[in-house]
């Protein structure tokens, strides 16, 4: 067994510190692209992102560098890293960045350049479906999100966004079923509770709507939209004091956000 094979074996067995020590010794004697790649992967798993970036740079792996930058919210830097790269993974990363930046047309443009090799990748259908939803292409979104669910039925976001699509298509009953599934998969999904509150409010079930808005606020105490909707339901229910308290919180949250952006 070669030295690199032994290191890979240690890495695959979860012996990261031992693999790292052996790899450092190997790199000092024979710095190859494969060694740099493996070093970066080990450092990334150990939570040492800055060092991982350095070794991905040495390995010439722009996609993995961009992936780390994306995870840090450094979207412009990630796009710059990928400006001359048109691999499938680079396009997926770029599409994800454009989704974060709410540039949904560019998301679709990137994904349309990818061939059928991603026909079994749920992430492809998830990104595409979400972008199509925001562009108002509801039937396309429904098709792609459903395909994503077929491929990976444990992703709460797929069900949540499919629910939003169904709400837009006036299929509230089916939407609520998807929201329930999203909550079952992720009991701390504030947006899912909020959407369920909207459906309950729409049906005139105000007490239940308040309960779901409150649940979303408990999970995310800075969820402005939830306070706004709950305040409106409080007003409908004759609970003026409670509504005024929520309106006060909304003002405080917006003021804080404005101060932070200065």
How would you sum up this structure, described in words?
It is a single chain. With 262 residues, this protein is mainly alpha-helical. Among the domains are: 1-60, Serine Threonine Protein Phosphatase 5, Tetratricopeptide repeat (Alpha Horseshoe); 209-262, Serine Threonine Protein Phosphatase 5, Tetratricopeptide repeat. It has helices at residues 3-12, 16-29, 33-45, 49-59, 62-71, 75-81, 88-100, 104-112, 122-134, 138-151, 156-168, 172-185, 190-202, 206-219, 224-236, 240-261. Helix 3 packs antiparallel against helix 4 (49-59). The chain is elongated and about 75 Å long. The N and C termini lie far apart (59 Å).
Binned strand content = under 5%
Query: What kind of oligomer do you see?
Result: single chain
Shape: elongated
CATH class of one domain: Mainly Alpha
Strands, total number: 0
**Can you name the CATH architecture of one domain?**
Alpha Horseshoe
Q: N- to C-terminal separation? A: 59 Å
Report the total helices: 16
Largest sheet, if any?
Answer: none
CATH superfamily grouping of one domain: Tetratricopeptide repeat domain
Average pLDDT? 94
Low-confidence stretches: none
Question: How do the helices and strands follow one another from N- to C-terminus?
Answer: HHHHHHHHHHHHHHHH
